[in-house]
Amino acid sequence: MSIIYKTLARKNPQDLTATPKYYAAVTPNGSVDFESLAEMISEQCTVTDTDCLAVLNVLEKNIIRELKEGRIVRLGKLGNFQVGLSSEGFVTEEEVTAEAVTKARILFRPAKKMRDLLANLKYRKAS
């Protein structure tokens, strides 16, 4: 199995007049949803796909709830989810208020096993 990629021309955002350069970009090879994951999991254990789907749905709700509380959600050998913030910069600490936050995002930090898979990927150019 290999990652299929295509080439994309991209301009330099710092010099829009420069000749574009070509870069490799992943060509998605489909997707998998909760229902399919639940079915795959049920085929590998004694739990039904309905039970697996119920657990995955509750997992999603609990991850969202914990992230809203500002907690790091650690999912074992998968990795960690955490909320990250961006804000304007100020000269003094007192000037930094909640209104200074310009953006929030969800950060995912993969665990070692997930990071290790990146070292062993094979690539194939899209035809």
The fraction of residues assigned to DSSP E strands is 25-35%
How many individual β-strands?
6
Helix content: 25-40%
Shape estimate? flat
Tally of individual helices? 3
What is the residue-averaged pLDDT?
94
- Rg, alpha carbons: 21 Å
What does the largest sheet look like?
A: 3 strands, mixed
Biggest sheet, strands in spatial order?
Answer: 2-1-6
Order of helices and strands: EEHHEEEHE
N- to C-terminal separation? 16 Å
Q: Which regions contain 5 or more consecutive residues with pLDDT less than 50? A: none
Alpha-beta content class: alpha+beta
Describe the structure.
With 127 residues, the chain is an alpha+beta fold. The protein has a domain at 72-119. Helix content is 30%, strand content 30%. It is built from 3 helices and 6 strands, in the order ββααβββαβ. It has helices at 34-43, 49-68, 112-119, and strands spanning 3-10, 21-26, 73-74, 79-87, 101-110, 123-125. The protein has a 3-stranded mixed beta sheet, with no helix packed on it. A 3-stranded antiparallel beta sheet has the order 3-4-5. Strand 3 and strand 4 (79-87) form a beta hairpin. Helix 1 packs across helix 2 (49-68). The radius of gyration is 21 Å and the shape is flat. The two termini are 16 Å apart.
Chart the SSEs and their pairings:
Layout: E1 3-10, E2 21-26, H1 34-43, H2 49-68, E3 73-74, E4 79-87, E5 101-110, H3 112-119, E6 123-125
Parallel strand pairs: 1-6
Antiparallel strand pairs: 1-2, 3-4, 4-5
Helix pairs in contact: 1-2
